[in-house]
Design brief:
The chain is α+β, with helices and mostly antiparallel strands and 491 residues long. It is built from 16 helices and 19 strands. The radius of gyration is 23 Å and the shape is globular.
């Protein structure tokens, strides 16, 4: 029986940080002795004493036999997995490894078009061929939800040679689709269900939160422990349950996409975050849910504002929206005559509240175990001030800006993402790239979904769409020219 009180990796790091010795190994600052003074003034020297490398007592991330192995076993038990891997390159490397472990060159994988850019990177690295599904789209809120079981079943009927299905659960807005039904359909074809659960690491620790992906039938899930729990930024976990996925292939894939010099500060923070949730998770999540409920209730009563919520059982549920993470708060501000971008700027610069992200009509906030009642009070009061002092009546933006993205039937790829990424390319002015084949990832924020990827045809409507996003206050990432004056295309 594993003892969740233990923190084997954290304890070993603490012991080694305090051990008097002459260090002749990396890192070069030698436990803080060589650190720059401005950085030492900011962080103190204690943290650098624990910034150690793979010493004998600290195990090895890629061949764990000691304290890392023990810490991962404790995490697997706490999160309901058969096996867990610690990640120091964020959930990005976990998604990449999941695709690499299940798909090879030319293999098909079914996935939603609103996947994170890390999934596109996984396609490029593996050579897999994407079969994209549109997520269910809410035209009233202008938000994409989950892909539906029917869409997955239809795709598997059309592509019975697919090697895996990947889905996002929950979405950035906290929306969860019918994962259990998707898992049943996927398993009838005897292929694995991979889940990007980056924003759902807390689900396992409270009955009022959505069902965790593993409990719903996922074979593999990747969680950003740092996003909603108590680990340091970039610290994540990959979990596997059952025997549909070869654990050795996961280990080998992670060796391709993780640093060979992993940060023990990040690894130890995963060990500590696991212990915290295993021992106190239900209490911490109960408190967090109460704070979120207070914020949701009070903000929804402010004239001109509304919040994303699931209706009472049986009313308004859809296959793409069957549950909501109540700790994720999305506020619609268009009723104030403001765009989400404008409201975000006012809240951040004038009212001392910073959202997780803004979109055209909405602001989304992550309420976690680190938030306090004072935070919630400031959030509510800031929205009260926003509604009273910054309200306008001449809002002119188009309310369905993202509709084209979420309802378009995507063209077949002319090249696989990998082929297009590595082929000879050239850079053209934006207007001249029309009808050419894209050779890079183009990801507008919001909504943070790659609009173009290597291998896809660039159309005039896509170019217009990207320029519209920029004009509304969004920005473009992934491509070489983020000003969007040029695009890289297949030569």
């Amino acid at each position: 029986m594993l003892n969740q009180n233990q923190t084997p990796l954290l304890d070993a790091l603490k012991t080694n940080a305090a051990r008097p010795h002459a260090p002749f190994y990396t890192p070069g600052h030698k436990q803080g002795e060589g650190i720059s003074q401005p950085l030492a003034d900011l962080l103190g020297k204690t943290v650098f004493r624990a910034d150690l490398t793979e010493l004998a007592d600290l195990d090895n991330l890629f061949a764990p036999q000691g304290v890392i192995q023990e810490a991962q076993q404790l995490a697997a038990a706490a999160f309901g997995a058969s096996q867990t891997w610690f990640l120091v390159n964020g959930s990005t490397c976990g998604i990449e490894a999941a695709i690499l472990a299940t798909c090879g060159t030319g293999d098909k994988i079914i996935l939603p078009r609103n996947v994170h850019s890390s999934a596109i990177a996984g396609l490029i690295l593996s050579g897999a061929i994407p079969i994209f599904l549109n997520p269910e789209y809410d035209p009233v809120l202008d938000i994409a939800h989950s892909i539906t079981p029917n869409a997955v079943q239809s795709a598997l009927q059309q592509h019975p040679d697919a090697k895996a299905v990947l889905t996002v659960y929950p979405t950035y807005y906290g929306v969860c689709g019918d994962l259990s039904a998707i898992a049943n359909i996927t398993h009838q074809c005897n292929i694995p269900l991979l889940v990007d659960e980056a924003h759902g690491a807390h689900f396992a620790f409270h009955p009022e939160l959505p069902t965790p992906a593993l409990a719903a039938g996922a074979d593999l899930t990747v969680q950003s422990i740092h996003k909603v729990l108590g680990a340091m930024t970039q610290a994540s976990m990959l979990h596997v349950r059952g025997n549909r996925i070869d654990g050795d292939r996961i280990s080998k894939a992670l060796q391709l996409v993780q640093s060979t010099s992993p940060s023990y500060l990040l690894l130890a923070s995963l060990d500590a975050a696991r212990q915290q949730m295993a021992l106190h998770g239900k209490m911490l999540m109960s408190r967090t849910l109460l704070l979120a409920d207070e914020a949701r209730t009070r903000i929804s009563q402010i004239p001109g504002l509304s919040v994303l919520q699931i209706l009472p059982e049986g009313l308004g549920e859809s296959p793409g929206f069957v549950a909501l993470d109540e700790t994720r708060l999305t506020v619609t501000v268009s009723g104030l005559g403001l765009t989400g971008f404008e409201a975000d700027e006012i809240l951040d610069e004038k009212l001392g509240v910073t959202a997780e992200f803004a979109s055209l009509q909405h602001l989304t906030f992550i309420i976690s175990l680190g938030n306090t009642p004072a935070d919630i009070e400031q959030l509510v009061q800031s929205f009260t001030t926003l509604a009273k002092e910054y309200r306008r009546t001449n809002l002119t933006f188009k309310s369905h800006l993202w509709q084209e993205l979420f309802t378009t039937q995507y063209h077949a790829l002319h090249f696989s993402p990998r082929e297009a990424f590595f082929t000879v390319s050239e850079v053209l002015p934006l207007i001249q790239s029309n009808q050419r084949i894209c050779a890079e990832i183009v990801c507008p924020y919001p909504p943070g979904i790659p609009l173009l990827m290597p291998g896809e045809v660039i159309t005039k409507s896509i170019l217009d769409y990207l320029q519209k996003i920029q004009a509304m206050g969004g920005f473009i990432s992934g491509c070489a020219d983020t000003s969007l004056k040029t695009l890289k295309v297949v030569k």
